[in-house]
Amino acid sequence: MITLYGFGTGFGLPEISPFVTKTEVQLKMAGLPYRKERAMPPASPKGQLPFIDDGGEAVADSTFIRAHIERRYGFDFDAGLSLTDRAQAWAFERMIEHHIYWGLVGARWVDPVNFAKGPAHFFDGAPEHNREKLREDAQFRVAENYLLSGLGRHGPDDDVELAVRSLFALSVQLGDKSYLMGNKPCGVDATAFGMLAGILSPFFESALRERAEGFPNLTAYVDRMMDNYYPEFAWTPLRQAA
Description:
Blueprint: E1 2-6, H1 18-30, E2 34-38, E3 51-54, E4 57-60, H2 62-73, H3 83-110, H4 112-117, H5 131-149, H6 156-174, H7 187-200, H8 207-212, H9 216-229, H10 238-241
Parallel strand pairs: 1-2
Antiparallel strand pairs: 1-3, 3-4
Helix pairs in contact: 1-2, 1-7, 3-5, 3-6, 3-7, 7-9
């Protein structure tokens, strides 16, 4: 059986990390049995989560895990899509992971209130004498990466505005369809769901979340994906929460 290593439940989500969520949903899409274990990034071969152990073979990074599933188990996440659709799905995935993701990082890690409420607790189990130092160092490293991403070079209103333009693109692509590329979920839906659920979780207050709630088709999409892939999770549909 495949073992998936992730952070686990938290922040009002069935999985804290959007990238672990992506991999978990893709395992469900492929119908592969798996068990899930908690881990921290240093345990991974690439120093990041998720990673999987599949019969003694460790595979790290959600995109490479997908490729591993497709190669070993012969599952095509984009079955039925044309070559053009596959190219578009890949482009949207890159936009989600390399642009929208940094908006989520800013809301969770750079905002001091949200950091104290959420990621700061990652270090609660550290020795008391250096707990605060570990928190400060981690927040500094993430904020530095946020700056290097480009989005963090802008003011708090401008960076949200740029992220919302990408959300708008997703909303237009989704339209009145059930899923991003049609009426059947495909690989990019796992990516989009993980990121959008992270942004829309009621656990954190942020300008990005408020703006994302202005796209009713995206909030309904998150509700639909949650019902499909985490039916056991106590997720309040966002239209009700609003």
